[in-house]
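User: Structure tokens for both sequences below?

Assistant:
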Amino acid sequence: MRKSTVQKGEGAAEEGAGKATGDTRLEAEGKADQMAAKAREAIEKVHESALKARDDVRRGMA
């Protein structure tokens, strides 16, 4: 499982707990975690694309 997926789930749980308890700080932290997870997910996708491109080049040269 990707780290971004785990982080997104944790953020959603924090946000939900914050809403349920009226803790605006916890809710905001949960939203921030979810946004960080989206950024991490984008980075992971770029990394995967770069690895695929590298592998494609290596196969072409072999």
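Moving on to the next sequence.
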Amino acid sequence: MTATEPATLDVALADEFSTLLVGIQRLVRRRLRQSTTHEARLRGAQIELLRLVHDTPALRVCEAADELCLAGNSVSTLVNQLVAQGLLRRESDPADRRAALLHATPEAAERIEDWRRRRRVLIGDVVTGLPPAEREALAAALPALRQVADALRTPPAVPRIPPDAPRTPPAVLRTPSGAPRTPPGQGER
């Protein structure tokens, strides 16, 4: 086992945990989509952005991208789609006219509240159907799940290379005449 490889039990737990989370999220989204009454169904990323803007009015596109862990241009595309559907509104930032502040429209707020209500009912029905011991286990797991979410939001640290670590030989580049040349900063150490 290497220093970065978790113990066998942890690997099995991590695999099952991540598979279950993805599966649960997909099933919840699918069930909620089936019961939607709106003509235009929204995709998962659109719903996530709407929820974020609804909960954090006057959010900038770059802040939304950071929070959702998406590229800025992906969030810009989502914003354009949601503005075209009348679900988001863009305002110029008075502090920086080049930036836009995002706001959910009243229709978006209604849809988000409807989505949250239906999600609460769906999950509430499933959890209520569990035996009391399983419900207690779920409640007891919530602090650990919050820690997992917080850890995933934190970008991984860049590994520090110890000074005595073996160095990779410098790459060999060729000059226009074909002679080898060492890239800047990769010469003798």
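User: Anything stand out in the second?

Assistant: The radius of gyration is 24 Å.
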